[in-house]
Amino acid sequence: MSIIDSEQNWQSYRTLINGNISYCTVNLDIVERFSPDSYNKIIQVSMPYESDEKGMPTLEEHERITLDLFRLLVQSSSLSEVIYAGHISGDGHLQVYYYCDDSEPLFDMLSQFKDCVDKIDVQDDLQWDTYFDFLLPSPLEMKLNATEDIIDMLVQHRRNLADNYTIEHTFQFPEENMMFQFMEEVNLGDTSFNTMSYSNTQVTITNEDDSKESFYIVKIEQELTLDTEDIFNYVEQFENLAEKFSGEYNGWESDTINRVKAN
């Protein structure tokens, strides 16, 4: 599989692993190649680096480890029966993950990288648990990273994060009674908000496969500054609370931020 062909389908995100900040890049291109009858082994290649206090590469090490990773991916892309699944950087190591059936060609290739690889692990993974449950981002991780991207965008546009922003959170629920239970929980909790509204009837949408989906909508409006962890805490709180009542938290938006994006 060519790296260049897969490059447009990589998803990068920040996460926490054992309490440590880690950065993960996952190859989304390979989902269609999953089969319990092939590519049953997961190979984890560990590449150490000198880290800062957060476990990330130091400025000097970042260039080196990035170059070593590029060399590794270029070499492994020539192995037709080896699938690159993704890599994770954190806690002083870059971990690179591959799927294959026969690990010998990959081990032969890795013999060229003895100067930068300190450990190689091989495990059976018939159901690709490492890929689906560990490497792929969860819905919450995707929302947290989208929030981080928005804040980075505001900083780049020289907006003051200490200003008050009107934030609108959106939720959907398949059943009306679950929607009302969710709203009651929010009202009885310590969540600070300006308004909460809901749809009296179901909203029906048509999906890309022409199937139809109906649900009730709840919107919660808050006034928040974005210079604290509050927005991240609310995203996590609302994700878990919506799931508790069989709903989905769709994320948040702000008219002010949308205008900044438009410019």
UniProtKB/TrEMBL annotation:
Q: Which residues form the DUF695 domain?
A: 8-136
Spell out where the chain crosses the membrane: none
Q: Which residues form the Regulator of ribonuclease activity B domain?
A: 145-253
Source superkingdom: Bacteria
Report the protein name in the record: RNase E inhibitor protein
